[in-house]
Amino acid sequence: MSKASEYLESVQKLIEQRDPNQPEFLEAVTNFFTTIKPVLEKHPEYVESNLLGRLTEPERAFQFRVPWVDDQGQVQVNRAFRVQFNSAIGPYKGGLRFHPTVNLSIIKFLGFEQIFKNSLTGLPIGGGKGGSDFNPKGKSDGEVMRFTQSFMTELQKHIGPDLDVPAGDIGVGGREIGYLYGQYKRLNGSQNGILTGKGLSYGGSLARTEATGFGLLYYVDAMLKDHGQTLNNKKVKVSGAGNVAIYAVQKAAELGATVLTVSDSNGFVYDENGIDYKVVQQIKEVERGRIKDYADRVKTATYHEGSVWDFDVDYDLALPCATQNEIDAKQAKLVVKDGAQLVAAGANMPSTPEAVKVFRDANLLYGPAKAANAGGVAVSALEMSQNSARLSWTFEDVDQRLQKIMQNIYQESADAAKEYGVEGDYLAGANIAGFLKVADAMMAQGIV
Ligand SMILES: NC(=O)C1=CN([C@@H]2O[C@H](COP(=O)(O)OP(=O)(O)OC[C@H]3O[C@@H](n4cnc5c(N)ncnc54)[C@H](O)[C@@H]3O)[C@@H](O)[C@H]2O)C=CC1
Ligand SMILES: O=C(O)CCC(=O)C(=O)O
């Protein structure tokens, strides 16, 4: 066994022993380790300085209590986390997730992925992530506000515009960011560089709302063009119906594709004439309803219970935009059978390792999350730049920068894969390109 293989195995073993109850974190690390050996062979100094041992251990991770009072006057207590994973190339940056499944394993997997994603954007941002097991579904605005105020009362002690800049993720959208920002400002005075995804009237950036979904399509467009194709007339399956999915649907349609589906955790809607993103936006973002309502409003659409990935229909592109591990191996086989030629991840780690293997074995074009969904955090970093400079760029300006960033991410991943002997493997390419910059910065900064 080569020295690099031995080293990877020993670090992996140590993590498994230390964190046996963190399956999502282990999945993310394993996924990364399976592609990184060629880099270690070229850079023995990374092995000698135990770079991966340091990289896989968060610089800081903390858990805190969030007490709040519900509409019935009952005191509720939620658990919250912030993982400040790696600051080698800039302040910790990454979203906050409010969802009942949130635990340390999920926040660590998301924070670990964020390190390389943020590096791929080419902007100076480190990796972090946070959240709580609070479930915003079915809560009143007053309850959400009291919860977020209590959450920020603790979190504000540990963040800062040059230290750690949170944003949204599942369950944290414009409403939550507004309440979080209001509470931060109340406790610290005005500082609009403390969060991104802010409203436009108080320091937000144009195009941040659209950025992850639009960015995903810019990445897919770059990948298809490199293979002599375009999005025109492509049939697309999208999962999810939240921030990422809505704007992925919009941009896919603008680029000439037909989006057949969107989904939530109960079921999905199918319309062969194409999903109308404005209707999804109204139902999910304004009314906070269920996707089932779509079929009541658009007569050509049908609603189906269950996972969209079990639905058998021919299509060209699969864009999972809901949540982690939403596609298993059996469903991945159906993706291949249904004729899809490309899978690109809008959600973080949406495919199980077995599903990823199915895609790779079938030679599908596979765009991993850390590359394909980096548009959101990229525009967050542009929001930080605008806040520091006290400027507001136009929508077109931000959108053009986003397009360029996504094209660069595709190209750098493709180039890295080629350079390290795995041409066409965009998962390996993204891992390698994202890792090299962070590794270089860590080596330059000594054993820290
Ligand atoms: N918002 C952002 O800027 C970014 C989000 N992401 C990732 O994209 C994914 C979606 O995030 P957002 O759209 O922001 O969240 P969101 O809270 O706006 O929407 C999530 C959507 O997925 C649906 N969903 C949740 N679990 C599901 C399941 N098991 N099956 C089908 N649908 C399900 C929900 O009903 C909701 O419509 C997450 O993995 C997130 O980490 C990644 C990069 C940036
Ligand atoms: O905009 C951000 O800072 C974070 C976005 C995010 O959480 C992600 O990329 O998964």
In short, what is this structure?
InterPro entries: Aminoacid_DH-like_N_sf, Glu/Leu/Phe/Val/Trp_DH, Glu/Leu/Phe/Val/Trp_DH_C, Glu/Leu/Phe/Val/Trp_DH_dimer, Glu/Leu/Phe/Val_DH_AS, Glu_DH, Glu_Leu_Phe_Val_DH, NAD(P)-bd_dom_sf. By secondary structure, the protein is an alpha/beta fold. The protein has helices at 3-18, 23-42, 44-48, 51-55, 104-120, 141-155, 174-188, 208-226, 243-254, 277-286, 292-297, 329-337, 353-361, 369-372, 375-389, 395-419, 426-444, and strands at residues 60-69, 75-86, 92-98, 126-132, 164-168, 235-238, 258-263, 267-270, 302-305, 317-319, 342-344, 365-367.
Map the helices and strands.
Elements: H1 3-18, H2 23-42, H3 44-48, H4 51-55, E1 60-69, E2 75-86, E3 92-98, H5 104-120, E4 126-132, H6 141-155, E5 164-168, H7 174-188, H8 208-226, E6 235-238, H9 243-254, E7 258-263, E8 267-270, H10 277-286, H11 292-297, E9 302-305, E10 317-319, H12 329-337, E11 342-344, H13 353-361, E12 365-367, H14 369-372, H15 375-389, H16 395-419, H17 426-444
Parallel strand pairs: 3-4, 3-5, 6-7, 6-10, 10-11, 11-12
Antiparallel strand pairs: 1-2, 2-4, 7-8, 8-9
Helix pairs in contact: 1-2, 2-5, 2-17, 5-17, 6-7, 8-9, 8-15, 8-16, 9-10, 12-13, 15-16, 16-17
1,4-dihydronicotinamide adenine dinucleotide (NAI) binds at residues 168-171, 173, 212, 239-245, 263-265, 284, 321-323, 326, 346-348, 373, 376.
Looking at this protein, list some descriptive labels.
single chain; 448 residues; alpha/beta; Rossmann fold; 3 domains; 7-stranded mixed sheet; 5-stranded mixed sheet; 17 helices; globular; binds 1,4-dihydronicotinamide adenine dinucleotide; binds 2-oxoglutaric acid; Glutamate dehydrogenase; oxidoreductase; glutamate dehydrogenase (NADP+) activity; Glu/Leu/Phe/Val/Trp_DH; Glu/Leu/Phe/Val_DH_AS
